[in-house]
Amino acid sequence: MSKDDQILEELTNSEYKYGFETAIDVDAAPKGLNEDIVRFISSKKNEPQWMLEWRLKAFQKWKTMKEPKWPNVTYPEIDYQDIIYYAAPKQKVTPNSLDEIDPELRRTFEKLGISLEEQKRLTGVAVDAVLDSVSVATTFKDKLAELGIIFCSFSEAVQDHTELVKKYMGSVVPVNDNYFSALNSAVFSDGSFCYIPKGVRCPMELSTYFRINAANTGQFERTLIIADEGSYVSYLEGCTAPMRDENQLHAAVVEIYAAKDAVVKYSTVQNWYPGNKEGIGGIYNFVTKRGICEGDNSKISWTQVETGSAITWKYPSCILKGDNSVGEFYSVAVTNNMQQADTGTKMIHIGKNTKSRIVSKGVSAGKSQNSYRGLVQVLPRATNARNFSQCDSLLMGDTCGAHTFPYIETANSTAQIEHEATTSKIGEDQIFYCNQRGIDTEDAVALIVNGYCKEVLNQLPMEFAVEAQKLLALTLEGSVG
Amino acid sequence: MNTEQELRSYFQEKYSSLTSGLNGEQTADLSQLRHKALDSFNSLGFPQNKSEEYKYTPITKTLLKSLRTDDHQVMEPQTVPPFNEYLLPNLKGHLVVFWNGRLVYCTDDLPQGLSIEPIDPQGNSLAESGIGTIANYQKDAFTALNTALFNHGAFIKVAKRSVIEEPVVLYHLWDDRANYMQTRHLVTAEANSHSQVVEIYKCTSGTKNTFHNSVTEVTVGKNAHFSYHKVQTECGENIHVGNTHISQASDSTVKCTTITTEGRMVRNNLNLTVDGSNCESHMYGLYLLHGTNHVDNHTRVDHRLPHCYSNELYKGIINDRAAGVFNGKIFVRQDAQKTNAFQSNKNLLLSDHASMNTKPQLEIWADDVKCSHGATTGQLDEEQLFYLRARGLDKQQARSLLLYAFAQETLEQVTSPVLKDYLDQVIQARLIEDHG
User: Fold this and answer.
1) Closest to A273 in 3D by CA, of A315, A311, A241, A321
2) A410/B379 touch (CB, cutoff 8 Å), yes or no
3) Which of B350, B361, B369 sits opposite A413 (nearest CB)?
4) Contact with chain B for residue A409, Cβ under 8 A
5) On the CB side of B108, how many CA atoms lie within 13 Å of its CA?
6) Last residue of a domain, one of B243, B276, B309
């Protein structure tokens, strides 16, 4: 075998890069879900009474709800009693500085490319790392505090910023919004909390890194971002998990609140373990993400690069309530092998002169199914609402599927709604052009896909854009030829 | 206001009186088909609020509110007034006329190659028609209901290699005595034939609520050319559910236009199954709504074999408190490589209380395809209005002219010039009525 062939062999067979498991002692709840587990989680977190009551109420609500069946995905029934709802790395004391964190844990994050210290020193990105269910480290806290910015784990926020949490938690995604948001509200273990005070422009990117490590666990984190009047924040989220043969559930809730003139930019690079080539294992990513532009002239922008997960089921949405508010959604969803994705957005126009823009790029390869499902709703009061949607699908191979389900509901005569969608494959002429110039087919595909996704990738902060491009190429490896 | 139970027993009673009235005279096959369809209707039930297919069209609620379940005279023979005055004067064609859902006239002056046989409840003419094979009664409650209960209709057969110049025109007329109507038509266009069918729906008098549940099944043979026009212009308080199922064989061309300008609640399902390669399918629709009209167009194109082309354009102008709904589905199966499928839905909302819900949907399992869809909802372009007004047209004239032009794009697709002229007049009259 020549050297070139070897490299090619390695490349096409390359598997999930982040599939290692860290040997750390975990403190876990017993399997199953009942009121005692909810109480157990709450007491573990040392939560006040009102929080426990909130959880119990959510649990009661969840018991009355049914799992939604409408997404265009198929998976075996989930046994909710076979999941561990709480797992935390064993640690005696809350760390005050990074040096006190378990060295094994730190190595985990270094392997992931998020060296907490490096990050701190070099890139100037504030990171909140969440392993299994618990936030393990938050960097740059003090520096942010000088500006009045609160960036901490959710459980700390419950203790220290009770009023803010009480006021905003559940205001954007109500407990009974859907099956998984109710489940999350009952058993969420940690997450990130962020508050940007009036008129402050957050000087650095805030970032959360999620990692599922322990076996049989579900991860249920909650993120709450509050941007007060005139503030600005850019927030990043990344995620990985070890390779396992069983499916693991990830049901998160993200809430964003934007007051008058506030701007929030939320970027996700989702790279949960997608399962192997036969579709065994992988994460079920059932996430509820929603932002509300409560104040006038506010703006929320979602950017997502979805490459991982066995099943992705999420719709980052914007409620455009304030006049002149703006909602944006940029998405690249890549599915390969047996992956399934049903993702899109909801833009709900309530205020006057509200604008929304949707750019969704789907790439399906292997035997995967990729669906775009979106809602653009213009309510009667929303005069001069404006929407532009574009959702394109790229098909690679004749065993995959691409589907689009756009819902457009207009109840105001001054609204202007445009929607366009295309589905096609990579042109043979394009591949030929690249081949002719010495670029092999694999690289040519990566090049073309990158170009196709450029509009979305351009929206990502620089550090993420590089990672996302690499991820795209990695996900599509072996899908050609 | 009825309960759903009352509605179900109303139809059950209709079924019992139909079968007992026939005294076992219907063919065994048909009686079995009706029975199966009724079972299927009973298990499907009326579409509920949460039903995805009827998300924006509360048909069950409207039926509960409006259908007169105490009316038992519909099946009785009625006297038929002279219907000639209600026909389009210049539209030449092979006439079949239904009054209150009953066949009252069927032409016997037919060119060679065309046969039209009335369908009666006994189903005598249906021996080899293949009724129920294309219209799937297992999935849609209204198709099931029609299959169980249909009593009148036309079985149109176009023989191989025949070119029928003039269209077959099916008039559906009704008056105040009507309540529930169900018609069933079958069309078989054999290989290499050319033909067209026009269905016209018209209310002759009265303001009472009526419910019309119709099914048309069309088989288009190899290399046949078939066009189908559905015209719903004067439908008053009619609640209409129409299912048109078309199956296409290789190398055939089908063109459909659906034009609706009135109706309390209209639901048109157009299902095309492209079961051959090298087929062409064209679908055009126009809905011009005012008052409290509610019109819902659902189309479904199922590409199963390679090298086919489908194109779809639906346009809507919605005024007052009217509501428009559009749902276009394109399926491209794994074997249907080299498919080109296009879909477009354009809407103008003219009033603050008008609404439009649209859902253009693509589901694709083949990779070597070119598919696209587009949807817009908006208003008349201010610049175009200004251009016209700068040239001396007043506001109303300018608006009417632009609306007329907007509608023209689909109207142009109507192949019969007489029908086109008629529709043109209807639309112009409407624009003058609504916009001065």
Assistant:
1) A241
2) no
3) B350
4) yes
5) 1
6) B276
Contact with chain B for residue A401, Cβ under 8 A? yes
Residues B122 and B260 grouped into a single domain: yes
The yes-or-no verdict on residue A9 having pLDDT over 60 is: no
Contact A412 B349 (CB under 8 A): yes
Residue B357 lies in a domain: no
Q: How many domains does chain B have?
A: 2
Of A48-57, A80-89, A278-287, B257-266, the least confident: A80-89
Q: What is the mean pLDDT of chain A?
A: 82
Strands (E), B204-349: 210-220, 225-234, 238-248, 253-260, 265-274, 280-289, 294-303, 309-318, 323-332, 340-349
Comparison of pLDDT for A456 and A257, the residue scoring more:
A257
End-of-domain residue from the set B218, B246, B276: B276
State the residue range of the domain holding B387: 382-436
> Nearest CA to A185 among A256, A338, A288, A271?
A288
Q: Is there a contact between B232 and B263 (Cβ–Cβ < 8 Å)?
A: yes
Residues B396 and B265 in one domain: no
Query: Of A345, A299, A303, nearest to A322 (Cα)?
Result: A299
A379 touches chain B (CB under 8 A): no
Structure confidence at residue A13 as a pLDDT band (50, 70, 90):
very low
Q: pLDDT, tens digit, for every residue of A366-377? A: 889 999 999 999
Question: A400-447, pLDDT tens digit by residue?
Answer: 899 999 999 999 989 999 999 988 888 888 889 999 999 988 888 888
User: A405 and B361: CB-CB below 8 Å?
Assistant: yes
Rounded to 10 deg, the angle between the B28-44 and B141-149 helix axes is 150
pLDDT of the residue at A457: 84
Q: Which residue has the tokens 């209409």?
A: B240
Distance from CA of B370 to the nearest CA of A (A): 5
pLDDT digits (tens, 9 = 90+) for A444-462: 888 888 888 888 888 887 7
Residue B317 in domain: no
Tell whether A375 is within 8 A of chain B (Cβ).
Answer: no
Q: Are residues B80 and B225 in the same domain?
A: yes
A416 — contact with chain B (CB < 8 Å)? Answer: yes
Ranges of chain B whose pLDDT falls below 50: 75
Provide mean pLDDT across the span A235-245: 73
Tokens of A141: 């806290």
Chain B residue numbers touching A427 (CB-CB < 8 A)? none
Q: How far is B293 from chain A (nearest CA, A)?
A: 15
The pLDDT assigned to A443 comes to 85
Contact B364 A402 (CB under 8 A): yes
R_g over Cα of chain B: 21
- Taking contacts as CB-CB distances below 8 angstroms, the residues of chain A near B357 are 407-410
Report the complex ipTM: 0.85
Please report, as a single letter, which amino acid is at residue B302. D
pLDDT at A1 over 60: no
Could you tell me if B201 and B231 are in contact, meaning their C-beta atoms sit under 8 angstroms apart? yes
By Cβ distance, the residue of B351, B364, B374 closest to A395 is B364
Residue A25 vs residues A103, A205, A247, B377: alpha-carbon distances, Å: 12, 31, 22, 58
For residue A137, list its beta bridge partners: A129
Same domain flag for B255 and B122: yes
Domain-embedded: residue B33: yes
Q: Tell me which residue in A395, A415, A422 faces B372 most closely, judged by beta carbons.
A: A422
Q: Does A454 touch chain B (CB under 8 A)?
A: no
Let me know whether B156 and B25 are in one domain: yes
| pLDDT value, residue A84 | 81
Choose, out of A66, A346, A408, the residue to mutate when testing the contact with B (most B CBs < 10 Å): A408
Q: B398 and B251 in one domain?
A: no
Q: Do you know the residue count of chain B? A: 436
Identify whether B327 is part of a domain: no
pLDDT for residue A134: 58
Compute φ and ψ for B232, nearest 5 degrees: -120, 90
